[in-house]
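R.M. (postdoc): so does anyone remember the format we settled on? I'll just put the structure tokens first.
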């Protein structure tokens, strides 16, 4: 069974996240989702207008004696997160107005580079029963890389497709956890801050790859682990409370991973930006060689400058094929073939061969600093 440091992967391990993360190797984690205590600082019980008690977050693990104590705690777990995060990895931290601004400052102080703040807009938020403030209908998530110009994972095109071919925005409308998804024990919520699976699905799908290691330092009810397992990622979670560990392990056990072929990011596989002339320069195609349409109805001769000559007309691979088909435009990469050992081979295959042999070793450009 796979392991990382002293921990077996694909399990929730009991213990304080700071001391447990200290046992993990440097640069070993691909993605971190952290849902730390919010330090809500509730001063009294909250009642609805009908005088029924609101099931608010008043757990002991969310209580700190002072803001300084909370800051020290936050600084310690963020320090470990940055140490164990791979240079190509990224971290997500979620919080409310009670804590997210303090966390964001400390996160930057540790050297993380903020990529986005995502606003999770709750379509069904809890009302403000006292009527003394605006209805608090969102939480904020900070997405950050380990450092500026890091080569982090982001499946932009897949997220665009997920959003009906529109750029995925930084405001996510997702309902809070409810119905059958909400884990209950004896009719009561098992965890007061259980996050919806839809939220983690989008995070893990967009910023990690199948087989990556996903860490949740505050595992709680196990939502991160459950979604990671379903999406073919390896996971590790830390949790102090024995009760939460039991319910999360039971939950994860029931998850069936999606078949590997369904997890491929086919939409992200872009055509390489290789001019036809590059194939000539590297002698993958030689001047004087003939190109053929797939049915061999049309032929053209390759010139030294990368143009094709057909019926005394010289033009690019695209314009030559378009004229032969009587069109304004046509994709020459999918139209033309070379003949090797009496077998037709698409020039598009030669383009991918060029990319693999000559482009994959090039230095990669740094990531953009801003949107």
């Amino acid at each position: 069974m796979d392991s990382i440091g002293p921990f077996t992967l694909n399990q929730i391990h009991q213990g304080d996240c700071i001391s447990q993360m200290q046992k993990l190797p440097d640069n070993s984690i691909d993605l971190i989702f952290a849902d730390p205590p919010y330090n809500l600082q509730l001063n009294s019980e909250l009642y609805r207008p009908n005088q029924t008690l609101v099931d608010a977050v008043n757990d002991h693990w969310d209580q700190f004696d002072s803001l300084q104590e909370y800051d020290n705690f936050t600084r310690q777990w963020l320090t470990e997160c940055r140490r164990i995060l791979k240079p190509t990895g990224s971290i997500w931290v979620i919080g409310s107005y009670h804590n997210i601004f303090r966390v964001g400052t400390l996160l930057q102080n540790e050297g993380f580079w903020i990529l986005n703040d995502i606003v999770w807009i709750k379509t069904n938020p809890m009302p403000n029963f006292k009527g003394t403030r605006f209805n608090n209908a969102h939480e904020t998530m900070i997405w950050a890389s380990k450092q500026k110009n890091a080569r982090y994972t982001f499946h932009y095109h897949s997220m665009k497709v997920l959003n009906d071919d529109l750029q995925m925005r930084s405001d996510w409308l997702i309902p809070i956890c409810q119905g059958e998804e909400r884990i209950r024990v004896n009719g009561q919520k098992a965890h007061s801050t259980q996050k919806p699976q839809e939220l983690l699905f989008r995070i893990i799908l967009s910023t990690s790859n199948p087989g990556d290691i996903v860490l949740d330092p505050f595992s709680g009810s196990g939502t991160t682990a459950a979604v990671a397992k379903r999406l073919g990622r390896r996971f590790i979670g830390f949790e102090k409370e024995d009760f939460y560990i039991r319910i999360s392990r039971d939950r994860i056990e029931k998850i069936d991973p999606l078949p590997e072929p369904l997890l491929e990011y086919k939409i992200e596989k872009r055509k390489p930006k290789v001019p036809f002339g590059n194939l000539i320069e590297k002698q993958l195609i030689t001047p004087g060689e003939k190109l053929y349409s797939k049915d061999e109805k049309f032929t053209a001769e390759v010139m030294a400058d990368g143009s094709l000559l057909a019926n005394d007309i010289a033009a690019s691979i695209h314009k030559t094929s378009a004229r032969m088909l009587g069109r304004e435009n046509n994709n020459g990469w999918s139209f033309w073939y070379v003949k090797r050992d009496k077998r037709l081979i698409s020039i598009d295959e030669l383009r991918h061969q060029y990319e693999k042999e000559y482009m994959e070793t090039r230095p990669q450009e740094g990531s953009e600093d801003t949107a």
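R.M.: ...and that's the designed sequence above, right after the tokens. Also worth knowing: The radius of gyration is 27 Å. Residues 46-54, 361-371 have pLDDT under 50 and may be disordered.
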